[in-house]
Amino acid sequence: DAGVIQSPRHEVTEMGQEVTLRCKPISGHNSLFWYRQTMMRGLELLIYFNNNVPIDDSGMPEDRFSAKMPNASFSTLKIQPSEPRDSAVYFCASSLGLAGGGPNFGPGTRLLVL
Amino acid sequence: GENVEQHPSTLSVQEGDSAVIKCTYSDSASNYFPWYKQELGKGPQLIIDIRSNVGEKKDQRIAVTLNKTAKHFSLHITETQPEDSAVYFCAAWPAGGTSYGKLTFGQGTILTVHP
Questions:
Q1: Which of A83, B29, B92, B107 is most buried (most C-beta within 10 Å)?
Q2: What pLDDT is attached to residue B52?
Q3: Would you call A98 and B101 a contact, using CB atoms and an 8 Å cutoff?
């Protein structure tokens, strides 16, 4: 089992640029979560999907953030345009359903917006 | 929505001592409570979990207790070792209601085990 795969692992970009983070969930898992981690705010749930359908995106901070899950094995989190306050570690996690069990986290993408 | 409070924020113990981390939750619909360990530069790793129909669960040196009436749950680590040093997070997962599926984390506890 390869676990949750995220790419890139590190991203440095300039303010105003578009950033796309990618996630491949564990095969067979049908729920996917995007979290953001900062020292000030801890682990924040941004959005989660069940069977490729977004269930709750109330944690997405602004319209600059968008997430998609076109199929069961791939999801993206996009920030356009990026701002310095978006600098954080972004985690993707997956689980078998929303009824508990896991989820399993990926290694994260460390984003720095200059 | 669900709100999870975690205490203490930092915990320092001597090797061999026990460590206890406590969490409270607000949503009575929460029925699954995982605990994660996060090491520097890595993603959170699930170490133990408990469901609301169970009061206690143990896995070697780690145990978790749940008081559903009081809405609090705790992580107990016995015979601590330096490799237990990490950040620990509790979480609560509602199985219904308006927060269905919304896994919410506590603020984290930095555990340091001194040799």
A1: B92
A2: 84
A3: yes
| Integer Cα distance of B82 and A57 in angstroms | 39
pLDDT confidence tier of residue B54, bands split at 50, 70 and 90: confident
Res B97 pLDDT > 80: no
Other C-beta atoms closer than 10 Å to the C-beta of B115 total: 8
Cα–Cα distance for residue pair B64/B104, rounded to 1 Å:
18
3-state percent breakdown (helix, strand, coil) of chain B, nearest 5: 5, 55, 40
Q: In B26-82, at which residue ranges do the beta strands (DSSP E only) sit?
A: 30-38, 45-51, 56-59, 62-67, 72-77
Would the CB atoms of B43 and A98 count as touching at under 8 Å?
Answer: no
A103's tokens: 């989820």
B10 against A2, higher pLDDT: B10
Give the pLDDT mean for B40-52: 93
Strand-pair partners of A42:
A38
CB B101 within 8 A of CB B42: no
pLDDT of res. A95: 92
Residue A12, pLDDT > 70, answer yes
A chain contacts of residue B49, beta-carbon cutoff 8 Å: 100-101
DSSP string, A6-66: EE-SEEEE-TT--EEEEEEPPTT--EEEEEEEETTTEEEEEEEEETTEEEE-TT--STTEE
Judge: A33–B89 Cβ closer than 8 Å, yes or no: no
